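ERR on first pass: missing label on line 2. Operator R.T. fixed the label and resubmitted. Corrected input:
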Amino acid sequence: MDDNKATIAMLERRVAREIKARKQSEEILNQKSLELYKANLALVDSNQALDLRVKERTQALELAKKNAEQQLALNENANDRFTLAMLASSAGIWEKNIIDDTWYFSDRLIRLLGYNEAQLIECFDQFSFVHPQDLRNLKSKVIKHVKRGAVLDVECRILTGSGYYKWFWIVGQAKWNAKGKFTRIAGSFSDIDERVENAKTIQKMAHYDHLTQIPNRELFNQQLDTAIELARAQQSQLAVLLIDLNDFKLINDSLGHSVGDKLLQHVAHMLKQSIGPQDLVSRLGGDEFSIVLKNITDTDQLIFRCRNILKEIEIPITDNANSLRAKISIGVALYPEHGVNRGELLSNADLAMYQAKKTKSKGSQFYLCEQSLIDQLATRSRIGKDIYKAIKNREFYMMYQPFVELASGTHYMVESLVRWQHPTLGLISPVDFIPIAEESGLIVELGELIIEMVISKVPKLMQGNGLGRLSINISAAHFLSPGFLRVLTENIDKYPGSAKHLCIEITESVVLDNLDLARVVIDKLHRLGLLVSLDDFGTGYSSLSYLQILSVDSLKLDRSFIADIDTCKDRRTITESIIKLAHSLNLYVVAEGVENSKQLDYLLDYKCNYVQGNYFYEPLNEDQLLEVQVDSLHYEVWNDEHSGEGPNYKEQL
Amino acid sequence: MGQIFTELLELVESKYGYEIVDQLLTNSKLHSGGSYTAVGTYNHIELLILVTNLSEIINKPISELVTEFGEGIFIKLLTSHPQISANITDSFDLLSKIDSYIHVEVAKLYPNAQLPTFKFVQLSENQVRLHYSSTRPFASFAEGLLLGCALYFNEQFQITRLPDPNSSEMNVTFDIVRTKLTPAHG
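pass 2 clean. output:
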């Protein structure tokens, strides 16, 4: 019984446990169901969210597809355009895809270069069709472009399939991916052969003399500048030779321009022959050539090379059985001794050439520039700069040189001579400053100052000492200038009666400049009461017809005639003839530069009216002139012996 | 997992009868009252209490009990989850897949389960080293499961356990040498 009870109790416990377990299971299941339900809800939400996302993705994909289609259409358009552009372009197109290692060449490129595709690939890969001289530059440009993005733009020569090199303009553009890796490169070849060849021709025409085919001044200037730079860097010497043909005008005029041209060509050729490969030769223009001799070591070597040039030039040309030999004058300036730049060297070579020209009668000559020449030029330049100031500051003064009248022994006539007392350079001769004043145009201002200074002295000098006329030298340019007569008249008006004490000395160049105007001015001077004298007669054209046309009152025989009359019979004959002719035209004659008694004797014989020179008087200052008294002895002797010859001077005077 | 508890009690009942089960549950005074369900979750301490009390009731060492139950439970667990055991070829294949496959699938079915790790190293064709690591002291139970596994695949495992059960039940290395008893089980 107890056992049964115990079993029943145990079974009851078991049932209770099972029931409890079942409930527990049910609770868990309920809980799991709830969780499942919630999970389902979450899944529904998640599904909806997924649906939404799918929808959005689909829309995005559709949009992307549409964009891609549009892009495809654009690409097709671009591709069409590219194809058309390639067909229309005169350039040939090439492209290399680095990733695929493939090449593309347009038909135009294949035609331009004359190779098939396989040959082109090899040419491009190896650069084998590039001219050896252009290879380095092209390779360097390509590398710089690919590595640094520098512009790839090269003009170079390419060996075409026809076997000839032609000039091409090559451009290219590489492409890199997002990581900066070089992925492809494309570009074009344009045929610029004609343009380059034309440019070369133009370059040659611009830099070479057409007649002689040697460099012209333009190229010479560049080459000389470069040579100077090099000599400076190497501390070496070079010589600039300025070469001028002697009397080339005469050859042109007498034998014709074609002969002149042949001579120029010959000279150019011979000059070229006579120099080394590193030296330069050019035709600067006209009959002027220049040579640059490089690496001059010493004067002996330079002289040897100059002599060599002269020797080559001696070789004649033959024209229609006539042999013609060029004569040249060479001026030489050395770098750095005579100049450190082109301007200085050419200028100083020109100075030296001027010296060589002085002895051109002896044949071809060369002359090496000297420092003294350069100094003279510097002085000349200084004078040119200072002369304007000198006129303003009245740094000029007058000297006077009397003429001796051979008939009377008196010194009735006096020539006024200008002098310049420079504040630093000291006394400057008119020989040095008058030409400069003429060149600069200041001769008018200077002449006006002289007129003013001389006329102001007339009252003082022309009283009581037997002096009657003061002559004033007037240059041609001043004589023919509009202000000459006005300024002269103004000054004469300041000193009434001075006109009859004045004489104007002019040179023959007045006649050459303007004969009619010269006659009018001379006529007016006569009417004012002045005399007019023709100075330096015998040095210029000395046309005797001028003497009549111009109606001058006297002529002055140039000192170069007088210098020779005691030694040269011909000179004496000419001098005598001129004096006789002048007298027949009722002109009196003044002989300049009488230095000795022998000269004087001849002039006495020829009945020359006046003499002037250091044999009698050197130029005197104002006080010295005033001290000069009439030499009665001379007057009486010569008056008796020579009266009655020639015009009645005193009446004129 | 509750299945361990229910399977344990079923094994006790089948071997010793429900009287022993009733006595065990009555004596143990468990917090859960011993009304276990396979789908529930219970404190693992209760499993220790049950094994300890059973050892006293039937007068059998705990380690023997644990091994005994391990063998029985292994077969139950494997057969009740055919979807997990489908791709297993032999015992070492199973052991190598505990962490990488079996426990991954278990975690899907029982998201709250606290699973141990089994680090598997194959030393030779018939020799492996398995390192058991858990937050719970069930190394002996795991050893029982290993023996159950050998049995299932018609093999015999010679297991060297380090350290011994008295030193650790939570961090243990099993060196296993297997012997195939008969041609391999399907």
